[in-house]
Amino acid sequence: MSDRLHDTRHGLAMDAEKLLARAAAAEARASRSLTLAMDDFFLPEAVRLGERLRSELALLVEGVIGRIEAELRDSGRRILVGRGETNLAAALDQPIGAVHARLCESGLLRDPELMAELIARVRQEALGAALPMQAPDDPEQPSLLNRFAQHSDRLLANGAVALLMAESRRRGASGTGDLPAELQHRLTWWVAATIRQTAHVAASDGVVLDRVLSDAALRSLANQDEGDRLESAAMRFAVALDAPPEELGALLIEALGDGRVALFTAILAHALGVSFTIGRDLVLDPAGERLWVALRALDVPRGAVAQIGYALCEADARRDLEQFADMLDDIMALDPAEARGAMAALKLHPDYRAAILALTLAGAA
């Protein structure tokens, strides 16, 4: 009787210890939640993601991870079934979603490069959707890309068609996973490792599963073609187009009028001699100063600068149209040669630019 009483009391003591541990963890969790809530409250409106963009970003992150997860699980099952490991293949039949939750909990998704790419994508698509549509002077005239798709120059025509196809893929489910190669590699291996971690198998089977998931990841990465990405297709078309200086402003305006932010960015980036990513940073920055300097560096006429500024202000609530109108005279007063000098730093090696920025931020701190 006394032994049973001791066992019961010991069990109650253990339960009490667990309860106290959970209470301590809850206190720490509440403190972290308060810190995050305060950080969010004091964020400037210019950098805060609105509810719609947060929702779009969440769907994009989940879609990218889910697509990679589904491909790796399917490939892994096929490999295992082919080897007669049907019981082990069943360990990969978990519902899609566990990997996304685990990666969110792990903190791995707080990767600056990955989130910069995904946030830029949702901002780019939101901007394109919000741009005021401009009716062409000739209602019968096709849009810019459709017009070039029929061009006699096959390089231009093929580039326009490839960009139209890339736009279609981006709008469909297959466009959720087209990340830059380095990020695609990083995320694929994270997903593979998380699938392994969440698969409940014996230690001996785990060794086999490790090899299978590694093979599945390598196969998935081998099938990725970064050239199929919307941004890559836009840059190839911009290179083929090689807009003459006297036509640059009109082409930029038409790209925005068609709601094609990626095309606008690519034409701008090629004219400046910088990467798509740098061009996108200029276009999406709500302050706009760097974009106005870039347009002056390209000697874009005043009317075109005004139309571009108006369209971007109308599409992005973070931009101030009156402030832009007040700045227009100052923008046009900037000498193009001086603007080109200011833009020269953008052409430096990205690692060198990152080092300069890191030193500047360290000095400011």
Task: Explain what this protein looks like in three dimensions.
The chain has about 375 residues and is mainly alpha-helical. Helix content is about 75%, strand content about 0%. Helix 2 crosses helix 5 and helix 12 packs across helix 13. The chain starts with a helix and ends with a helix. The model has no long low-confidence stretch (mean pLDDT about 90).
Helix content, binned percent: over 70%
Overall mean pLDDT stands at 88
User: How many DSSP-defined strands?
Assistant: 0
**N- to C-terminal distance:** 68 Å
H-E string: HHHHHHHHHHHHHHHHHH
The chain-level structural class is mainly alpha
The general outline is globular
Q: Into which percentage range does the β-strand content fall?
A: under 5%
The description of the largest β-sheet is: none
Radius of gyration: 26 Å
**Count of helices?**
18
Low-pLDDT stretches: none
In short:
This protein is mainly alpha-helical and 365 residues long.
Question: Main traits of this protein?
Answer:
365 residues
Compile the SSE list and pairings:
Layout: H1 2-41, H2 51-82, H3 86-89, H4 98-106, H5 112-130, H6 144-149, H7 154-171, H8 181-198, H9 203-222, H10 230-241, H11 245-257, H12 261-272, H13 276-284, H14 289-297, H15 302-315, H16 321-333, H17 336-343, H18 350-364
Helix pairs in contact: 2-5, 2-8, 2-9, 4-8, 7-10, 8-9, 10-12, 11-12, 11-15, 12-13, 14-17, 15-16
